[in-house]
Amino acid sequence: MENLGVAPSSATQTHSSNLSLARASLLGCSALLLAIFLLVTALLVYIAHDQNHEAEAHSHFDSENALQGFEKLTRSIVKDYAFWGDAYRHLHLQVDPEWAFVRQNLGSTLFSDLGYQGVFVVGPDDRTVYALVYGQLQSVTLQGWLNHSMAALIAQARQDTKNATAVSTFVDMDGVPALVTAAALSPGTDPSVHPDNRPPSVLLFVARLDPARLEALGRDFGVEQLRAASSGDTSLPTLALADGGAAVQWTPERPGDQLLVLVLPLLASAGLVFGLMAWFILRRTTAAARIMDTEHASLVASRWALAASEERFRDVAEASSDWIWEVDGQLHFTYLSERFQVVTGLSRDSCLGRPVDEILRSDQGALSTWFKDHARRANAVLQCNYQSGDGRARICRLSVREIEGRGYRGTATDITEEVEARRRIEYLSQHDALTGLANRTRMQEFLEGKLKSMPTLETPLAMLSIDLDRFKPVNDLLGHAAGDQVLNEVSQRLAGCLRGDDLVARIGGDEFVLVVVGMASYQEVESLCRRLIDCIELPFSIAEHEVFISASIGIAMAPVDATLAEELLRYADIALYEAKEAGRNTWRFYAGDMNARIVERRQLESDLRLAIKQDQLRLHFQPRYRLQGKQLAGAEALVRWQHPQRGLLGPELFIPIAEETGLILPLSNWVLHTACRAAASWPDDVVVSVNLSPTEFQRGHLVARVKAALAESGLAPARLELELTESVMLDDAQGALNIMQGLKALGVRLLMDDFGTGYSSLSYLRSFPFDGLKIDRSFVGGLTAGGGDRSIIQAIVGLGRALSLTVTAEGVETPDQLSALNDVQCDEAQGFYLSEPMDAQAIAQLIRRKTDPS
Ligand code: C2E
Ligand code: CA
Ligand code: CA
How much is the pTM? Predict the structure, then answer.
């Protein structure tokens, strides 16, 4: 795989930075242009203001000129009238209104044509001697009409007489400026007039500058709206005309404003257009930049992601135990990850280019076909076999994916161990770990399978339940390894007796089940059973020992006995029980009366309740002898039931019923008392042993009951032996130990009965306070003078000696067995050969005979 590099290219970066540079410079430009725009505006405003200012100054000058022009004009008019000899004669030397007014020398035309509202002559005594107001001759004084004292002006006019000039001043006449022009009357250049020596009279013209006149005046000089100043308006240029407050105002031209009005909108719209353009461009570039930024960011991110994913791929490919493969359209390997070599031990180079079918094989047929059919599925997985580099068969799981039209790729996981483990688990769940035989589960499956195919009378199915006799002590005494060895050997022997179609299963410690098909006759089955037992009875060589065991077989047949697996199993078990009852080493077919016996048992149950009350129980005693000296050591009390209809019944028929129904307590009490009473009459060295049922231990008061029996009979506790089987200790070892210690405290002896038939006799023997053990008669049965079961008995005797226990062999039926027991130095013996159980009277007689010296 090519490495694309992990850093994003610098071109992209430059691109992005260029863009932001462009954006920045655009912003800069806009700012600069804005500044320039503002500057221009400011400049424009400044220029406009300056122009306005200049225009105002101009208008001021013009206004001044206008008024001065008017003043000049009026002065020259007044001078003309005052330096006139006739006027001096008719208005100073004597006042002649007729000459002045009527003859229109100084008459109404001064108002109508020249516009002077007031024409006055003030005499040498400062009295108004001639007054023409609005063209009419009036008898008002100058001061009275003007409301101003013109004394100063008059005085000034008299002074300037020699210069022949007029003087003037502006006054405020009720808010209207008025020009008052004065000149002293003088004869002028007229030689006919002789001036007197009085102060000259003074001629005064008053021109009221009312609005129309002022406006006209101004207009002549290009001044707009020249008018009397209103006191409040200070915003307009003002020209003060006199100290007295007369002033004029006008509206100056504002060329700057015009400029602004003209240029500003243009400038503003240009600015707006530019601003909009800049905003638009900025917006576009920003959006573009954003897109580019995003694109750039996502490009960078995707580059990183790609790089990371490649790195991840490499790491995973190298770290995982899987290998990765790729094939082309012809299914030839085009890629194999490095792990391939490590996992398979095959060379990568030699496999690349080879067809996939050459290396991998599947149960599903050719891989090429399978790929075509399945690779499009989401989870196409195929289990394949291949041969590893070192030639071992391996299994891998192939995940397959189609590369669009170009071939396939996927991973391969080595699952050899997984598959083997699964197979092993499957095997273990179906098989017995020790012997490798089928277990109960497998057997049931097999049986059900066989039953489904309907066995017929011609081809029946036989179900054999096999239980080993005398196997437990092998386990206990020679060790579990020896026990396992025997079980393995037994398994092989059993399997050796069967044909391929049949099944042998181990369903318990020493219990086996055989399912046999196609044995047409009972004779055939019987001969099979014979063969099986013969096989098992052959000695087993375990370490240096020769071990002998046997087997009991119960048989149930389908379809005769049952057609259901469960029933078949139960019936085979019932038959097995019968076989064991029949003395072991044998077989029994299930029979209907075996069920009938169960019914019979129900009857016995109810009968047994009466038996105790109606005194139907009998106690027999079987003597026990010391092998050394052949002396009577004691007798075992064995209960019988004298049934009114069925005769004398053995304990195995009713003890289990008594245990189940709780009748065992009264029954056992009866035995205990009867035995103790009988023994009390015997010689002191003869002991009596009484069998105890395991249920007695659980239902309490045993110690008290024994104590009572001893007390009632007066028997010495040391002469009472209690026989217990290991099942007493199985349920509640601690409880049993407490009771046993209580019994020991009474002084009675404790024997372990049926030694060798239980599971852990040996360990109990060590940890419980026993005084002796009784070897089960099944061991003694196998004992012959020549050898037989000798090693086990010998081991038990040795063990008893080591634990200081009295060892009694039960069921001695032949002189050979007796001598064999002698050979192994067994302590005591009991059996039909020595003496059968007998009633109380008979035992008493026997004892008397033995002890009687006569
Ligand atoms: P067990 O304690 O093993 O008693 C010995 C049994 O072996 C007796 O059978 C006896 O008749 C039989 N036997 C003695 N010698 C030989 C022989 O040489 N060969 C053969 N084949 N058998 C021999 P029994 O009397 O039928 O007693 C059977 C079992 O019933 C006893 O086995 C014992 O477990 C139980 N049992 C007997 N009496 C009582 C009792 O009073 N109370 C309780 N709880 N159980 C009792
Ligand atoms: Ca017994
Ligand atoms: Ca016994």
Answer: 0.43
